[in-house]
Known about the structure:
By secondary structure, this protein is an alpha+beta fold. Helices cover 40% and strands 11% of the residues. It is built from 6 helices and 4 strands, in the order H-E-H-E-H-E-H-H-E-H.
Amino acid sequence: DVKSIFHEENQGKGGALKTGFAAASGDIVIVQDADLEYDPKDIPALLKPVIEGTADVVYGSRFRGEYQRVLYYWHYLGNTFLTILSNMFTNLNLSDMETGYKVFTKQVINDITPHLRSKRFGIEPEITARVAHGENKKTGLAWRIYEVPISYYGRTYKEGKKITWRDGIWAVISIVYFNLFDR
C-alpha cells in the first residue's frame, strides 16, 4: 500500500512535506529525509512514545544517537546555533531542531499543515515553531514533544550533500519570522 506522489516541478522540501501531509491517511505520520543519512531501523524507537500515548510529536536527535559519522565542524556548529536560537524562541530544549526524522500524530499534522508556508529548508524551523506554539484542540494543552536518539550517516558534498550557509541564513530568518510574526 505504498502511494507515490510526484510534483511536475520541484517545490522544495516544504512543498514535498505539505503534499505528503495532505495525502497521509494513517494515525501517525513519519518524516524521513530521502538522502540516505537516516537509518530505518530507528523507526520503532521513534514511534514508541506516540504508540504508548505519551507523545504527540517526536524528533530524532542526531546528537544523542549511538552512531554518527564524523564530518563537518562548521555544519555541527551551525546546527547547534540554529537549534539554540529556535529553543530561545520556542522555549523547548531540543538538541536537534533541523533533524530529518520526525513523527507526528495525524491530529498535529491536521492542525499545522494548513498554516505551513515554507518551500525549502525553512520548513524545519517553521514546523518546530508551529508545534511549540500550538496546542491540542481537544484538550487545550500544549503538544507533548519528545526527542529520541537516532543514528546518523552524514554525507559529504561529493556524496551529494546540498545544504549551504545560505540555507542557514534562511533558517535564522524563518526562526524569527515564524516565532514572532506568523504564529
